[in-house]
Amino acid sequence: MALPGTWVAKEKRRTRRLKIAMQRVRVSSDYLPAKRLGDSQICLVPKFRISAGPGAATAPSWEVESSDGTLLQPIIPGLPDHVALNCLVRVPVENHSVCRAVCRTWRSLFYTKQRFFTWRKILGFHSPWLFLLALESWSGKLQGLLLNLSCPSTWHPVPPIPSKRRLEARSFGCAAIPQEGTLFLCGGMMSDEDCPLDIVLKFEMLKNRWTVVKPMPAARSFFAARKIGSYIYAAGGKSSDVRELNSAQVFDIAKEDWQPIVDMRVAMPSYDSAVLDGKLLVTEGWIWPFMFAPRGQVYDPKIDRWEMMAEGLCEGWTGPSVLLYDHLFVIPEHEEMKLKVYYSETDTWDTVEGNPMPEQISKPFSVNACDSNIFVVGKNLHVALGKVEKQPFSASGSERKRLHTFSVKWQAVPAPESFRGWTPSNSLVHE
Amino acid sequence: MSESTEKKMVRLRSSDGEVFEVEESVAKVAKTLQDMLEEDCADAVIPITCVRAPILTKVIDYCKDQVMISSSSSTTNNPNERTEQERKAWGQKFMEGVDSSTLCELLVASNFLNIEGLLNLGVDKMVSMIQGKYPQEIRDMFNVVNDFTPEEEEEIRNQNAWAFERDPYYKKRSSSK
C-alpha cells in the first residue's frame, strides 16, 4: 500500500494531467483518442465525486501489477480503474467469494477482507457491523455472529470460539477496538460449574479468526471490562471461591500484557459498566428484591483512583447502558424498556421521548450504539434500531437547566426464524 | 443563476460526430461543462470526445430531467419534487434495460463530464448486475478474461469462505439476467 505522501503526489499529478487535458478539450478534440469498450485506461481522470465522504478526495491509484510483477488486466475493461473500484467496493459481502473467482485483478481486491475493507475506507465508505455473542438455542454454546448494519438482514456466524468450556451468558468481559475490527473476550464463568476463568481470546474480524492471548492474572467473572484509549480495564467481579473481588487490572492492547492498577474501594461484581469522560463507570446494578440501592464506583485512569459513583447515576442505572452524543443512555430492564438518558450536570435521568420499543424485543437484551443509532438485540436475536436525535433544550415549563434533550425513533429488524430460542449476551460495534 | 430571459443554447459534439444542441442550463448539470462555460467558451461546438451519440443522448436526457426538477424546486408545493422513494424508482427506471457495455460507456461519460447523480446511478446499477451472479456470468458481462492458472483456480476453490459468503461453484441457482 502506498504511503499517504505518494497519494498526494499522485493526486497532484492527476490534477495537473486533468488541467492539461481540459485545455486540450477546448482547443481540439484530436488530441484525445476516442475510447472504446475494451480500452484499458482512459487518461482523462476528473476526480471521482461520488458522495462517499472525505476519503474520496485523496483516493490513491489502484496498482496495476500483481505481486509477482505481471501486469494485471483492468478491473473492468473500458472503465477507468478508479470508477470500477468505486463500483466493486460496494458489492455486498455475500458476493465476494464469487467476485474473487472472476480473474486475478478481482482476486487482488476480494482475496482478503483486510484489503477490501482498506479500499472501502480509502474511498471514504463507512461499513459498520454489529458483533454479537449469543447462546445457541440447542447446544447452549456461545457463538459469535455478525450483522451488517448498512443493510441489516440476517446474522452471519463467525468461526466457533476456540474454547471447549461453556460460558455463562454475560459472565465474561468484552471489549472492542471498533476501528480495527478487533475484540477481546476475557474471563467468565463456566455454565456447568462454579468456576471463573482467566482466559483471554481475541477475535479479528478482517482475518475472521480467534486467537488465544495472555490470560488475566486473576480469574474473574461478572466483572467490568472496558476499553479506554489503547487499554482495556478489568475490575471487580467474582473470584474462584465466588467471593467478590476488589482487584483490578489493565491490559495493554499493543503489548498484550496485563498490569495491576489500584484496588477498587469495595469488592463488587459488575452488572454493567461504561466509559464516560474518559472514566470507567462500574455498577453492581439493582438486585432483587431491590431493598438496597446498588453500589457504583468510578475509576479515573489519569490519576489511578477509584471514587464512589454519584447517587443519582447509580440509582437510575436500571439496565444495559450505551454511550451516545457523550451521554449515557440506559434501556431499563423494567419500566417498559423506555430509553432514558443521564445528565451529569444535575445527576438526574430523563426519559427520552419517542415511540415504544418494538414488541419483538424481549429480555434478556444487549445494547450497543454506532453514530446516532442504538441497537438493542433481544431474545430470538430480533433487533431494535433506535435513531436518536439531539435537540436544543427549550426552557419553557421547566426550571431545570440543560443544553439539549433527546428523542428516539425505534424500528424493528426481525431476525430469521432460525435464530428462535437464541439468547444474546454481549454485543459490540465494528466500524 | 438566470442571466438572460433568452435561453442560451450550447452545442455538444459526440465522438462519432453528431452535434447536439441543448439549453445551457442542461449542459451545466455536467460539472465539467459548467466549468468550461463559466470560463466562457463562447459559441464553439464542445467536443465530448469519449462519448458516442447514443450515450450522449441518454446523458442529455438525464440532465434535462435534473433541470426540470431543480428549476421548480425553489417554489413551494412543487409538483415535480420527488420523495426519496420516487427518486429511487425514477433512477431504476432510467437505468432499466441498460446492458453492461452501455453501462460502462455511461459510467465513462458521467465520470468525464462529472455528473455525480448519474455516476451514482451507474454504480448502483453495476453493483446490482454483479449481485447473485456466478464468476463466468460476470466475466461474460464485462469482457473480463479469466487469467487464472489451473492451480490458482484450485486454490480459490479451496479457500475457506468468509462467514457470509456464498459458495461460488457448487450451489445451483436459477439464473436471472
TrEMBL record, chain A:
The keyword Glycosyltransferase does not apply. It comes from the Eukaryota. InterPro entries: F-box-like_dom_sf, F-box_dom, Kelch-typ_b-propeller, Kelch_1. Keywords: Kelch repeat, Repeat. Signal peptide: none annotated. Residues 79-119 form the F-box domain. The keyword Repeat applies. It holds the Pfam family F-box. This is F-box domain-containing protein.
Automatic annotation (TrEMBL), chain B:
It holds the Pfam family Skp1. Pathway: Protein modification; protein ubiquitination. Keywords: Ubl conjugation pathway. SMART domains: Skp1 (SM00512). The keyword Cell inner membrane does not apply. Residues 8-65 form the SKP1 component POZ domain. Residues 117-163 form the SKP1 component dimerisation domain. One of its GO terms (biological process) is jasmonic acid mediated signaling pathway. The keyword Nucleotide-binding does not apply. Part of a SCF (SKP1-cullin-F-box) protein ligase complex. Belongs to the SKP1 family. Involved in ubiquitination and subsequent proteasomal degradation of target proteins. Together with CUL1, RBX1 and a F-box protein, it forms a SCF E3 ubiquitin ligase complex. The functional specificity of this complex depends on the type of F-box protein. In the SCF complex, it serves as an adapter that links the F-box protein to CUL1. This is SKP1-like protein.
